[in-house]
Design brief:
It contains four helices and four strands; from the N terminus they run E-H-E-H-E-H-E-H. It is an alpha/beta fold. The longest helix has 29 residues.
Length: about 160
């Protein structure tokens, strides 16, 4: 970022002609459904057409990366979105799933040079998840569109 860019508002987001893939975990389905609804609504507001959105589901957060990788390998998408919800429990499983799913999503993005908006919530309790779901779903859509446009500009 150049000094003159500091504090500058980003250009308006334009999703026209972008192809977006969404992978949603079904574990904690009510919450991930809210994430997906908000993400899809925001993508439409940004001009991404319905026929350019592919939305698939997987069992849980650990399965998100493999579906993202298959989408990335297809070269049919300009950006991808990961949607999931991991709520802390009483065992170490929370840390394992949170760390591994996050690292795997990042690895897919870097290995395939495709932007992935990571909206896998990692929260202490269900109340925190509900408080974040809608906003994070919208944020994921905006990140996907912004990064897809940036990658196009950089290539």
């Amino acid at each position: 970022m150049q000094a003159s860019d500091k504090g500058a508002a980003p250009a308006p987001l334009n999703g026209q002609d972008l192809r977006i893939g969404i992978v949603q975990a079904r574990f904690n389905a009510d919450i991930t459904g809210r994430l997906a609804d908000a993400c899809l609504a925001e993508l439409r507001l940004l001009g991404v057409s319905e026929q350019h959105i592919r939305h698939v589901t997987v069992p849980g957060a650990l399965e998100i990366a493999i579906a993202l990788n298959a989408m990335a390998d297809s070269e049919d998408y300009d950006a991808l979105v990961a949607l999931g919800c991991i709520i802390r429990g009483e065992t170490y499983h929370f840390e394992l799933v949170a760390n591994e799913s996050g690292a795997a999503v990042t690895r897919v993005a870097l290995d395939n040079q495709i932007p992935i908006a990571n909206a896998i919530l990692t929260v202490e309790n269900e109340e925190q998840a509900w408080a974040r779901a809608e906003e994070k779903g919208r944020d994921a859509a905006r990140v996907a569109v912004e990064m897809a446009n940036l990658m196009e500009e950089l290539q």
